[in-house]
Each structure stands twice: as structure tokens, then as C-alpha cells.
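Objective 1b: paired records.
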Amino acid sequence: MTPAQLVFDLDGTLIDSAPDIHAAVARMLAGEGLPPLDLATVTSFIGNGLPKLVERVILHSGLDMRTHPRLTRATLEQYNAAPAALTRPYPGVVAVLTALQEAGHPMALCTNKPEAPARAVLRDLGLAPFFPVVIGGDSLPVTKPDPAPLHACIAALGGGPTIYIGDSEVDAATAQAARVPFALFTEGYRKTPVADLPHAVRFTEFHALPAALAQISLS
């Protein structure tokens, strides 16, 4: 049987990027003469792409929403200056990706992070060789939870049976919309109880992912 195609989310799934996102937001707010938000607050804003994150920061900080385009650009510039200074893969990610690749699973990345910084992070953390296909939040006119980015990944890998691996409400909704089985990493940035997120399997540590994927029927 041909190994399933595997499409991964990035932030909160493969990598803990919240510290770098938090730092970029803090530098943007400093430019507006405002104090930083705490890490937990910024982490709670992650998941729907950078423009939405900045929108949430603006609302939380009492800024004028008319500044949204400028502050989104400023935050992206701050983030791009050091996208992987504090970011690290979750424990076991590299070993598991290596094993899955050696087992013949084609792999792609489907993220709401803009494509250029997503590729930069993959490169800086040594993860780029696992992902010949990368669809970012600005690769298409729409972002997750619209199924189009996931469908684009599936098509680019060849169109075979596919499993989507992610950590959040957005990822669960994307998989559901695309009619693709969803493997939930429970230790990422989700805000909803695990039982309330639709998923085929779940895992709390990456070493358990191959066994979890083996439980999914793709017939």
C-alpha cells in the first residue's frame, strides 16, 4: 500500500514559535509607545494568520483599527528580522519527520504564516528538506480554515490519500472542510478542549505520531 501523504501545520504543531512572535509584537508596540503584552496573551492570538493576530493586538491594546495595515507590515518586518531566534521544534519532531520520510510518506506544509517567513524558519531549523511543498498564508487568496490551501498541498504532492496534522481549532476546521482525516497534536496553541475538536486521532508527544497515523483508515 502506498504511504499516505502527510500535510503538517507549522506554528504550534512542528515548532513552538510563540516566543519569536511575542518578541515581534513587543517591538511593534514599543514603536507605538506601548508596553509589551505577556506571552500567554500573544500566544492566544496565534492561529488565523498575521493580519488577524495584529487585529487582536490592536483591539486588546486600544489602538485605532485604521492603523491595522501599517502595524501588520511593522510586525511582519520585526518578525522577519529574526524569525527563528527563539523558535525551536517540539521534542522529537526531527526524528519523527526523518522516520516518516524514510518510510516513503510525501510531506507538505500548510500554514497561515506568510510563506517567506515560513520557509525561512524551516531553513533555519533544518526542517526544509522534509517539505518540498509549502503553502503559506499569502500563497493563495484565502487562508485556513478555507480548505483551498490544504487542497493545494494535496494536489502538489500528487493527490493521493492524505492526513492533516495540526494543533488548533483552525486546523481541525480545515481538515473537516477538506474532508481529510485530522491528527491532533494536543500540546500546541489550541484553546478548545480536545474532546470538542473533531479529530481522527490525537497525540501528545511526537514519538507517538507514527503509531497514531497507523490507526487511521484511508480506505
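Objective 1b, second protein:
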Amino acid sequence: MTDRDVSIPMCPAVLLDRRNGIAVLTLNRPDRANALDGEMALALDAAVDSLTGDVGLRAVLLQARGRHFCAGGDIREFVESIDDLGSRIDGSIPAVHRMIHRLATLPVPVVSALNGPVAGAGIGLALCADLVLAAESMKLRGGYSAIGLTPDAGSSWLLARRAGEARAKEIFFTNEPLSARHCLQFGIVSQVLPDAELDAGARALVTALAKGATGSFARIKVLVDGASHRTLQEHLELEHRYMGEASRSADAREGVTSFAQKRAPVFGSGFR
């Protein structure tokens, strides 16, 4: 992958910039609270799809412009199609779900930076990242049941996985907003930063991750994300296999050698 700026054509609401192995995805509908309409969902799907299989990719940052990270689905679209709401929603969900799964399973670290309120489908978009940074002003609100709908975009799975089933039900039942500090306390976000420091903090993190052992990160994601679906014996066998693969890699040789030489390691592209 060469250093370049890439923007998604036909949809200025989604920006994609790829540089030095880092992809930055930016939600760019600040006038609509970065709500997901049909066009934006398709553009996000195309953007994430373009990252899949990119051997030069080393880290991803998901961010948003304006005062909100993502308000969820675009209620204006719902109102416009109220007489055929089911068909409208059925038609839009596949692209959103495909994008969420692709983003969550990329074999590189994914960081989301939540600059403001998050609700509805925005919860899934925010929490499908490996590490979630939040500004002090961020608030999280379920929102679905308040308009007679149920969660999508993986939001119920991801929130239950981070905060527990009881807490997730409380959030989706009551629709009471949670502050960034409460989200940190409940394990929903990884770190809370002052608003003015969020962008610099997120970029510093993805830059550091992009210099890391990408093959190691990819294996760690598979191990951790699938741990609850394996028996202990199955997991131990996978750990054994992955440790064997990793120990034969150039990154392992570089990591051990640099540690012995008391210098910073220079990792390659891992095993992908």
C-alpha cells in the first residue's frame, strides 16, 4: 500500500484516509449527528471492504466530525418511509451488519474515538473496535425501545460482551444516558480523555499500534474474541499452535533480539 489519501466517491459523509499503514475512517455528517442513512451505510461498507485483504494495513482509526460520534439510524429516513418501515429497515441492515463484522474481524488493531454522544446503531459501530477511547463529553444511550425498535449493528452483542447482560438490558430498557466515566467504570470504553486531547490521544495510540507486531496482534484477536466459544482444551491447543507459528516468525526474532540489545524493535508485516 502506498501513502495516499483515499475518499469514498459519491458520499462525502464517509472519508477514508490511508497513510503509512494506518487507515482513518471518518464519519462526516455533523449536521445530522453522523446518523446512518442508507447511503452512508453503503459507503461505510465499501470503505471497510477496501481494507479487507490489504497486506499493508497495520491499524485502523474510526472517528467522527462534529459534536456527535453517531446518533444511530437516521430517524428522518424512518419518518419518510413510515408506511413501509419494515422493508426500509430490512433493506438497509445487511450492509451495516456486513460492515460491522468485517471491521471487527480485521486482523489488525481497530481503535474508535468517541468524540460525543453515541446511540442506537452507533453503539455497535463504536464497540466493534478493539480499543474504545471516549471524550469526557461522550454519552451512550440505547434509544431503540424508545421508538419501539430493537438493537441492530451488533450493539446488543457487543454491549453485553463488554458490560454484561444485566447492564446491557438496563441500558436498552431504560434509555437513560450513561456518561463517559460510567462507561469506563462498566468496561464499555477503554479510556476517557479530555475532549481537547481525544484526537491526539487516538492518533498516538494507532501510530504506536501500527509499529507493533501485526502478526501477534492478529493472533491475539482470534484468541481473545473466540475464547468464550471454545473449551479450555481447544483454547490451549490453539494457543500452542499460534505460539509455534509466532515463534518461527521474523517478528519474534526481531523482538527477542531487540530486547536483548536494549533497543526498540522494528517489526515487519507479520504472517498475513
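The chain has eleven helices and ten strands. The first helix runs from residue 38 to 51.
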